[in-house]
Amino acid sequence: MARSQPALSTARLQLLPPEAAWARAVRDYQLRNREHLAPWDPTHGDMYFTELFWGMRLRERIEDFKLGRGAMFLVMHDKQPGQVIGTVSLSNIVRGVFQACHLGYNIDQAYQGQGMMSEAVEAVVQFAFRDLGLHRVQANYQPENQRSARLLAKLGFTIEGEAKDYLFLNGAWRDHVLTSRRNPDFDATPLRA
Asked: Is the dihedral angle over the CA atoms 138, 62, 50, 29 positive or is it negative?
């Protein structure tokens, strides 16, 4: 039987697993931050900004965790429970000899510059290492996204290179800086068996 994704907490934040019941709160977050997130996202159609879409998307993310493919967390401030102020996701989890995933994150424009994104991302990275037993978390950002560059450097991610025309975002192919952070406590014993 598949286990349920746990909630995480930090000094100021609750990071909750996806549930279809949060669809309206996520839709409201996306609507509030539509322009703020647009430079870093694919171009979205109107359906993306509906409660129906987010109900379906959250159910997909629940299934991703059950199948070991990913983990999404909805970020909420302790002082405003029920209001989504960001998301942090692990995706493309690969086992075998790789034992790695990709990290994605975003935060409400009103909460930038307060250290909350680093608090949330660090909690999820520790979850990836401790609970999921991964060796490597990869995170990529567009060169002009200096907030992401500073965040990842602060959290110990190492730049590994640059990929030209890496993702098609906001209507064009975008270059990305490739980074990763490795688990210093990774147990490779099962891989050697």
From this structure: negative
